[in-house]
Amino acid sequence: MTEQSKQGLLLSRVFNAPRELVFKVWTDPKHFGKWWGPHGFSLDVIKMDVRPGGMFLGCQRSPDGSQAMWGKFVYQEVTEPEKLVFVQSFSDEEGNTIRAPFNANWPLEIMNIITFEEIDGQTTLTMQGGPVNATAEERAAFDEMAPMVKQGFGGTFDQLAEHLESQQ
Question: I want to staple 129 with a disulfide (CB 3.0 to 4.6 A). Which of 69, 112, 118, 146 is the partner?
Fold first, then answer.
């Protein structure tokens, strides 16, 4: 199930894995770098301190290595294995927030709320994300790109499903 709501984007997917494992691959740098991001891109995890106030810092590289984009999460809430809340931004190598390289009106910060619910050994992951402290132009840019963001997360979640299978 995927829909766009007033709070941004809402995505939900069922994974054939226990909740503790799904949570672990979101919070352990040894796992996270193996599945996060667009298909074919690599992710170098520079820092991953999963606690309120902690930060993830990483660099995604295109398949041919010609493009590199830095990004960060600042964790707001961590309730193992039930919930992760973080603010996501593009960044420079030091973790300073910068504008997205693809759109000058892309919001500087996106709040993501992820919940993990296990039923009969399967985990339903629900992710809600949307702009924080955004201007009207930034909200419009986010809404315009929502279908591409949804498609991108579909691919990322496919990679997550494959990674989870390899861990069981």
Answer: 112
Q: Which residues neighbour 122 within 8 Å (Cβ) at sequence distance 6 or greater?
A: 14, 15, 16, 17
CATH of the domain at 101: 3.30.530.20
The answer to whether residues 59 and 80 touch, using CB atoms and an 8 Å cutoff, is: no
Number of structural domains the chain divides into: 1
- Per-residue pLDDT of the chain (168 residues), as tens digits, is 333 344 589 999 999 999 999 999 999 999 999 999 988 999 999 999 999 999 999 999 999 988 999 999 999 999 999 999 999 999 999 999 999 998 999 999 999 999 999 999 999 999 999 999 999 999 999 999 999 999 989 999 999 999 999 998
Give the domain range for residue 36: 2-166
* Cβ–Cβ under 8 Å, residues 56 and 72: yes
The answer to whether the pTM exceeds 0.90 is yes
